Structure formats: C-alpha cells, structure tokens
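Hey, I'm writing a tutorial for new members on how sequence and structure tokens pair up, and I'd like a real worked example in the thread rather than a made-up one. If someone can provide the structure for the chain below, I'll link this post from the tutorial.
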Amino acid sequence: MHYLDHAATTPIVPEAKAALLAFLDGDFGNPASVHAYGRAARRGVEDAREQVAAAIGASPAEITFTAGGTEADNLAIKGVGTKLGGNGNHVVTSAFEHHAVLHSVEHLQDGGFQVTVVEVGSDGLVDPRRIGDAVRRDTILVSVMAVNNEIGTVQDMAAIVAAAKDANRSTLVHSDAVQALGNIPVDVHRLGVDLASFSAHKLGGAKGVGALFVRSGVPVAAQLHGGGHERGLRSGTLNTPGVAAFGAAAEVAAEEVHAKSERLLKLRDRLLEGVRAAVPDVVVNGTLDARVPGNLNVSFPGASGETLLLLLDAAGIACSSGSACQSGALDPSHVLLAIGLPPRLADASIRFSLGRASSEEDVRAVLDALPEAVERARKAA
C-alpha cells in the first residue's frame, strides 16, 4: 500500500513511540498520585507540556491537554461562550470550518447566541476584511481555522486577528490549528490568537490526545467537571502515554518543518504535474499559492469521488475523498461547496495528502494507477 492520507492521520514517529511505550510500562502511574509512580508520570506530562509549548511559541502554563482536536475546539468555543456570554452573545466563524467548530458554534446558537458565518473565497481563503466587517460590539469570539483540513489552504491568521481586534479589541480569536503544526511553522503569540487547538495524531503522535492553547488571562469555563485536573480546565485522568508521545512528536515536528515542507512541495508538484498530464480536465480545488506543501485536493469531472477512492484503494493507493471525520457521509463536502464548487464537481473530489514518510515511489504509484481508475469511475457514473 502507498499511504497518501496524512491529513487524516500520520504514522507515529519513533521518538513518540518510544515515549508512549515508556509510560505504558515502567512509568505507568497516575500523574495525579503523590507517590513515586505518580510523580514519574507527572514529570512525563510536564515535560510534554514544555515540548508542545515550545513547538508553538507558548509557555507551558498556556497548554491544556485534551482527548483530541475536537475536544479542544469544543472547550475553546463553548468555554468562552459559557464564561463571556454575559458580555455579548455574538460569534463569528467561517463557512468551511471543521465540524468540531461548526457544531460547537451551533450549540451556542441553540442557547441563544447569534452567529455570523463568513463566506470563503473560491481560492479557499478567508478575507480578513470580511471578518472585521462581521465583528460587532457584542462579538465575544471569532473562530477561523489556520489550515483547512480538506484543501490545505493557509489563512493569514495575523491579519484575521488584527481585523477582529481593530473592530472590537475585546473580541477573542480562536483558531483550529490541527492541520498547521507539523506542516507550517507555528507561533501562537506572533499570530496573535487567544486560543488554538492541536491534535497529536496529525503530526506523528498517538490518537486520542490533543491540546488547547489558552493565552494567559483569557477566560474559559471548563466543559468537563470532576477532579479539577489541568488547572480546573479539563477534569479527567490524563492519557499519560499519549501525552508523552505528543510532546515528543511536537518537538520532532517543529524541528523538521522547514526541511519537510521543502521536500513535500517538490513531491506534490510532481504529483500535480503527473495528474494534469494523465487527466487534463482535472480541477485543483483552492489556491496553490497559500497551501500546506503536502496537500493536493482535486476533482475529476464525470467521476464519483467515492468510486474513485475505492478503485485507487484496490490498486494499493490510500487517499481520501474528504475529511476522515465525515467518513461515510453521502453529501458533498461542505468545504468544497463553501468555495463555490457545484455539487457534482464537489462529489468528484479526491484529497492526496503527503507526509513525513512519503516518497517518489508513492507518487509514481498514484500516477500509474490513476488513468485507469478515472476512466472506470467515469464509466460507472
């Protein structure tokens, strides 16, 4: 098999695997316990907190570990809404956010909040001016993802934050940055965001672990209640092995991001060149000028993306027809519809996402299998 679905999940890196196994075996204690086993586990958690913080330009006290990016998004959006609802009841987001954001915002809306959903350009970019125009006196939160999970477009978060703050200096800005860390350099304070969500398995860590950056002084109400873990923001015994692996993976991701990006950009360009040669009417979804290097989201007119996905899988190519979080959904991608694709073209999309382990051999395998797969998918449509 040739794996080209790194946006869905990534193989665990050796450093993360070593950390994971260490805390499954000898240092198996509960990090909330005061005895030696617990203290060893706690050291592992705090070491990982420092590693994740360093990878995103934050301080360790600004990192709260969660069970994944989805929980981090929920904690940020619902937590700010719960805490600041008395100061205003308006939230701004974009039309192509991850469903963890969109559904969290809908939850606030069900509770009486007003929501403005800003349109996205056909290039897959959010215009900061649209964000500024949408912010009102009662806007408590703006949430815009740093990198789109389906088409890989990179938003100008610094400009989005500036536009929001210029319109209302009290408005907080959250970013789902799950697809950013490991694919582009991340510095949360340089970007100016108040909150940002991350996920370990997108960058070589284990599944089921995430983190929420909360800028010092930003008010967030806990959404899980219990023993008061994570400074009261997220109760529940931490997944210590996963957290330790997250720290190791984040450190590796930050160290390698520039070299990895340079290599993947060359691979992706060769993949795109070959795809265009094999299927001249292919449509690239979103701009190539502001996109993470490993992402290529394309549509093949006249073919079903799901059929094409299955044919490629049978040929040994693992890729995706959209977000893995929406696996099994029959509707066209809301991301592609948001950038203006007609439903039939959105339904004909495939996402190839390269990663740390991707090679020239993977690209050649796709290009060898693609012409026949597209031809068969079009005949079956």
